[in-house]
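TL;DR need structure tokens for one chain.
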Amino acid sequence: MNARETAWRLFSSELNTATHEIKGTDEKSPSYVVTHLGAMVNRVLVAGVLTEKENVGSEDEPMWRGRIQDLASGNFFINIGRYQPEAAKAIADIDAPEFVAVIGKVKTYTTEDERVFVSIRPERIIKITEEIRMQWILDAAKSTWIRLNQMKKATAIEDVSEKDLITAGFDQKYAQGITTALDQYGIPNSTTYLKTIQTALRTILPDKNIDLGLPEDMSQVPDEIDIEPGATAQNNSDLEDTILNLLEELDTDGKGAPRDELERRAETAGISSMELEEISNILMDKGLVYEPNLRYLKRI
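>> reply
TL;DR here they are.
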């Protein structure tokens, strides 16, 4: 069983400016889109407002295109075809505008004039509340801040190499992503990402008058940002235990827990669809559960 790729939380401004892709060596190997902050992105979990959708295929073979506004920095673009039947069925029943969350793989497309566009191929798309969308904005802001500081620490090392970063305590994939990003794009403009973070935090904390100062470089910025978690955030370990117990209870025939029933039971337990998706991915990253297919989740 192949290791599950992390579903990144990042803003559209970071994803859409990525132009470098690391192709898999064979059909089963993952490909990665490398961002300017060094994220090696195969899968994403994004949330926002589905502002438009269009079926560019036929009624019998729909091919959906859509635009999701992340509020803080721009739009994600999604494409759903015949190989994403669950997502195609779901988006057909969603009327824009609507708050949605999407989990899917990223793809790049290069035009004849060498321009690169990034889109998401959803595995799943679900309706969410505005409150959950705000929680995603908080998660994406934290994630972006962490990558900014990792890049700051990496660029402080002269002629930095992947080996240098691993020796300094960086995860191997982060080390590879950062060195690849520096080689392909150079040192990123931190102001761009600080503006996005500032906009995001002002959106979810409108009464806090947040001002990050927007320095020219990261040398004046602290290594950590103190962000008060949303009131709806729960302890991840408690949520993980709840989901694991539900998986065991709902796996009545050895095939795994049906996702629709798992979502219903999780909602009864006070766990939203997006929280369920996030915790499921954490459990898959830990090797505790896997997907026999997109309709089932099974405990290992």
